[in-house]
Every structure is written in structure tokens, then in C-alpha cells.
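Checklist before submission:
- one chain only
- standard amino acids only
- sequence pasted in full

Submission:
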Amino acid sequence: MKKIKIITIGVYGFDEAGFFSALCNAEIDTFCDIRSRRGVRGATYAFANSKRLQARLAELGIRYIHRKDLAPTQIVREKQAAADKATKTAKRKRTELGEAFIDAYHTECLDAFEPQSLLDTLEPDTQVVALFCVETAPEACHRSLVADKLAKTFNLEVEDILP
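Returned file contents:
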């Protein structure tokens, strides 16, 4: 297997120009959206809504894939919401995932996820894959868990892009 590099990126904290510039600077060739709902509320992040996002990525020559199987279910998201409520942490201010979320995400998503299935969907010339969700900090987002599993399974390099 050819070595690929994994990048993680969220949208919060970026403006449109900065977001796409970061993708280009990291030489992303494949963008893997691991959100369940592929929309973001408000005008600030409208560029990350699925149709607009896919159109801009296509203009930049970046392939887009959606892996809904890697998105946390509503039940898993509710575990994090309960943890955030207990610690009085606003969703966008969260700096790490709660243990209940991590455990539930592993049980509902990652345990059944076969990392090779993701690699099998990639084009042969793929070199740099971005795992995308919305949270600013990778430690506060499930993308870090997916990246960790890929890194451990295939001994891949992971880099987090922050705004």
C-alpha cells in the first residue's frame, strides 16, 4: 500500500479564503466529509454547506467523498451534549470529547469501521486526505478518533490544520 498522509480540519475559526487556502497549502487531493448533516448554520460558514463546498473543491481539483458511516449518530451526539451541559461548556468552546461520547462512538461507528474500506474508495494517485468536520480543535471532534484509527492501522502520518 502506498503511504498517504491524513490531515484533519474543521471549519469553525476559518473564513472562506483561509479555509480553502489551508487545503491548498496542505496539498489536499481528497476531501473526506465525515459529517452526518452536511450543513452549517449561519452566513459565516455557508461555504461549508455541502453543495457550495463540493463546487469549490471541484474548482480546486480536490476530490470529495462523503462517509456518513463515520458520522456520530444522534444517540452518540446526545452523549456529548449531556457532557457539555454537565460542564457548562458551549459546543464551539469544547476542547475535548467526553468519555461517554468516545465510548459510544467506538461502539456505534469505529468498531464496525474497516479502515481498508476508506482506502479502497480513494483514487490510485491519492496522497493527502483531509478528514473534515466542523469543530475547531481536533481533540473536540470525532475526526481525531477516525484519524487515530487510520494512523494506527496503517502507520500513517496525521497533521491537524487549525485556523
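Reviewer check: The chain is about 40% helix and 15% strand.
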